[in-house]
Amino acid sequence: MKSLTDLIVSLALIIILSITFASFAAAEEKITEIYKWVDKDGRVHYAAKPGDDSAKKMHLGSNIFHDRKIKAIEAETDKQDKEREKLCQDSKDTLAKYKKAPFLYRYDAERKQKVRLTDSESKETFLQAEKDISYWCNPPQQLSKDDSNKQKDK
């Protein structure tokens, strides 16, 4: 069994380490903003408060990952917007081709030939082309929190 002195020393060491760790954690939380500026002599300064009007707030390490995530989201959104624009233009081109054609056809796989669409099938094809244009050429609406909560309730 350990002696009483060994137990006291161990306990004191645990307490000191706990206090040290807690003080580092508290210090890290207190420094939320760092400013950088260059004085008139060309020296660069860093501080928790701006030293003059030229001071700029710096991003700390945790913000770097946040900024990267925002940039990745923006890049994905741009990619989706470009795809949507292409599909919009393709839909418009398809409708223009339908309007120029004297008749519309579909391919019959059994007979291995084109078959002319009936008037009702042609009307349905035009309607679908117009729906495609409406869908791809109008940006999707963002739901507000209230709207999304209402949809969850339904």
Brief write-up:
The protein has 154 residues and is α+β, with helices and mostly antiparallel strands. It has four helices and five strands; from the N terminus they run H-E-E-E-H-E-E-H-H.
Summarize the helices and strands and which ones pair or pack.
Blueprint: H1 4-30, E1 34-38, E2 44-47, E3 56-58, H2 61-100, E4 105-108, E5 113-116, H3 119-137, H4 145-153
Antiparallel strand pairs: 1-2, 1-3, 4-5
Helix pairs in contact: 2-3
Properties at a glance:
154 residues; two-stranded antiparallel ribbon; 3-stranded antiparallel sheet; alpha+beta; 4 helices
Explain what this protein looks like in three dimensions.
With about 150 residues, the chain is α+β, with helices and mostly antiparallel strands. The protein has helices at about 5-30, 60-100, 120-135, 145-154; strands at about 35-40, 45, 55-60, 105-110, 115. Helix 2 (about 60-100) packs antiparallel against helix 3 (about 120-135). The mean pLDDT is about 80.
Question: How many separate helices?
Answer: 4
Termini separation comes to 67 Å
Output mean pLDDT. Answer: 81
Report the sheet-strand fraction: 5-15%
> What structural category do the secondary elements indicate?
alpha+beta
Q: How much helix is in the residues?
A: 55-70%
* Strand and helix order: HEEEHEEHH
Largest sheet: 3 strands, antiparallel
Give the CA-based shape. Answer: elongated
Low-pLDDT stretches: none
Strand order of the largest sheet: 2-1-3
Rg on CA atoms, Å? 33 Å
